[in-house]
Amino acid sequence: GNDTRTLTFFDGQWAEGNPGLIGPRSHAMWLGSTVFDGARWFDGLAPDLELHCQRINRSAVALGLEATVPAEEIVRLTKEGLGRFDGKTAVYIRPMYWAEDGGYMGVPAEPTSTRFCLCLYESPMISPAGFSLSVSPFRRPTPETMPTLAKAGCLYPNSGRAILEARSRGFDNALMRDMLGNVVETATSNVFYAKDGVVYTPAPNGCFLNGITRQRVIALLRADGVEVREMNVTANDFLAADEIFSTGNHSKVVPVTKFEDHSFQPGPLYHRSRELYWAFAKEFGRIDV
Ligand code: PMP
């Protein structure tokens, strides 16, 4: 909810709380022309902050908006805002762009009407007990049907209905497939499994978000001598796995403890991924606010 300390930069100023930034005539409210990114600040660390600030500008362009704030400036604003938090509670870093006006028939976003805000709010880092996962009857759209390369708000009602459907059957999250039936990600994160000491994860195919945490964990595992195969994977591959885990900026690396009717234990490759990520964050993720 909006109940934790929130600070938002908009139009040159920082405001506390939840300022009203769009109205009924805003294109973003009518047709959902919003993009966002998500990064974390915890224990003085904001791993890969620059990559998140670069990605939101790519998302803006992919949705037909203008990337009006250079990535380095988003980083600088983030540090400025974080300096106003005490750092005891982790902070979620959420830059956003949206369109105020539409073009032809009001439908395409008018790029010159792009607005930017940077929302920072307290959100504790969750220690990963693990979560349960079930194959969703809903699919991820193809790049021909949605701007899948943008981290756009309009892609998330699909994730939302997948989670609700999974929860109605007693699971926490949904394993999403593409139109061909290959597993691509969960409704909110990327997904990996391990089998006989090798780590497997879906190969980027334009139908899922090639997450920044995903790419970081793959690089860290490979540098540590673990074989990671990016390839087409199916739900049956996950059922036959030794372990399953998930990556995302929110909680970093989290084990899957149940998939369909199979139970899983957090395994050695999950632990190694999480430890490697934290070692990386401590070595390279410290920021001065
Ligand atoms: N897939 C989806 C659908 C997501 O919402 C997220 C979270 N942003 C991810 C994957 C993980 O991406 P990242 O590691 O960049 O946060």
Automatic annotation (TrEMBL):
InterPro entries: Aminotrans_IV, Aminotrans_IV_CS, Aminotransferase-like, BCAT-like_C, BCAT-like_N, Class-IV_PLP-Dep_Aminotrnsfr. Its cofactor is pyridoxal 5'-phosphate. It holds the Pfam family Aminotran_4. Keywords: Amino-acid biosynthesis, Aminotransferase, Branched-chain amino acid biosynthesis, Pyridoxal phosphate, Transferase. One of its GO terms (cellular component) is cytosol. It comes from the Bacteria. Its EC number is 2.6.1.42. The keyword Secreted does not apply. Transmembrane segments: none annotated. Acts on leucine, isoleucine and valine. This is Probable branched-chain-amino-acid aminotransferase.
